[in-house]
Amino acid sequence: MEFDVVELSRLQFALTALYHFLFVPLTLGLSIIVAIMETVYVMTGRPIWRQMTKFWGSLFGINFVLGVATGVTMEFQFGMNWAYYSHYVGDVFGAPLALEGMMAFFLEATFVGLFFFGWDKLSRVQHLVVAWLVAIGSNFSALWILIANGWMQNPVGAEFNPMTMRMEMTNFFEVIFNEVAQAKFVHTVSAGYVTASIFVLGVSSWYLLKGRHVELARRSITIASSFGLASALSVVVLGDESGYDAGMNQKMKLAAIEAMWETEPAPASFTLVGIPDQEARETHYAIHVPYVMGLIGTRSLDTEIPGIEQLVEEAEERVRSGLIAYDALMTIQAEREKTSDTVKATFEEHSDDLGYAFLLLRYLDDPRQATDAQIAQAAEDTVPTVWPLFWGFRIMVGLGFSFIAVLGYFFYRASFKGMQFPRWALRLAVVVIPAPWIAAEMGWIVAEFGRQPWTVDGILPTAMSVSNLSAGQLLLTIAGFSLFYSVLFIVEMGLMLKYIRKGPVQDEEITDKWMEKHSHRLRTHDGNVPGATPAE
């Protein structure tokens, strides 16, 4: 069997990214939930909330440490496996990553230590500030990473320099406030909040089934169900925003998610289920919901969404336009400062389509020698494999609505039924714990797989981005990463299960002091204050 270097590089990055993303959602969500719990502790002074903060904080710490280990390894791959990508767009892509390291990672890592070791050295308010700084640092980390990723999906604020053969940043604020990046950020962090809420809900339900740590479990369910329900509802709203952005900026991705082979009259219907057949350009046994896709993709009832066939035709036109830009680029590279104004103007006119000409480098060294058949094939290559996107999106959406139902039910029971939960509901909460991770991984697959064949959409094909490595070297590193990550996964699961079984540790001294003060307040409230003269 012959292994392709591009596919092996993609496989390695996919494995490390998907594994790293197992830790990210729980880190994002638990950091906020823990900060909320400590806020309640500072406001009320009740030891049970301190106990909850320390217990869930310990689980956050385990997840955080292993998440950092896998994240650092993943970023090294830009230099290892994607050297030309790093060279081509490093001026743009490197800035958010550097800011993530300086502003987010060090902020988060510094205050994590204070959070765990500062309980007896900081005042309540000081420690609360630390908890919120940890949460802010975690979310800032996601912000900068998703700004970098959002630029790959919608490359704004940069332009290609024909003299250096690199993308160069022209507007930093356009990169930061890229609409795709901002939509991805709020959608991703909200999904992380749902993941942590389901996790807290499930673990707390397990404690109630076992009759252990009942007070902690009930209060944790109250926090998780209310925070999680608000987050789950926001995921739906923010997911709609991502769909609209895809309809505006990544039309091929949206058409592939919907398996929309032909352009439909406006407003387009949404395919609820079906079996996409990419070879036949048909979706078998499709069930359609009228108008819905038109509203999601265009927010109107009179704007059509282009189908895959139409987009392939447009891609072929862009390949031909890109060839004009490529020819002008080769002239500029040869003549440098002596290049005529006519050639420069020609390049500027067609430069937006240069990346489409690069698609031909997969088939021949000089794209200008391409035949009509090769140009048509390059245009066809802009269609990603449809079935993973089609089903990944529907699994993600289906699970998302199920989370609303589960969290809504527990919120109702916690708010209006005295925190009394049926055993069947508690068992369901335990079973559903892995589901948010499945939804998150499906979302990541849809976002990244749907961008193919581009590393940077419309700018740099994936086939151009790889390092000059052999298949053997890649197979060796894939085996090494798989072994390393398998060990980390076993360590993560072992530690998490150990601490969950062990449960929270009660601080008896603080609890006794609080109970003594609380009893005194009750006696004072009843008028039975020691030493007071009885009322006549």
UniProtKB/TrEMBL annotation:
List the InterPro entries hit by this protein, alphabetically: Cyt-d_ubiquinol_oxidase_su_1
Q: Which GO terms describe its cellular component?
A: cytochrome complex; plasma membrane
GO terms for biological process? aerobic electron transport chain
Q: Where does the sequence pass through the membrane?
A: 20-43, 55-73, 93-117, 129-152, 190-209, 221-239, 391-412, 424-447, 471-491
Q: What Gene Ontology terms describe what this protein does at the molecular function level?
A: electron transfer activity; heme binding; metal ion binding; oxidoreductase activity, acting on diphenols and related substances as donors, oxygen as acceptor
Q: Which Pfam families match?
A: Cyt_bd_oxida_I (PF01654)
What keyword terms does UniProt attach to this protein? Cell inner membrane, Cell membrane, Electron transport, Heme, Iron, Membrane, Metal-binding, Transmembrane, Transmembrane helix, Transport
Give the bilayer topology: Multi-pass membrane protein
Query: What family does this belong to?
Result: Belongs to the cytochrome ubiquinol oxidase subunit 1 family.
Instruction: Name the chain's protein.
Output: Cytochrome d ubiquinol oxidase subunit I
Tell me which species this is from: Donghicola tyrosinivorans
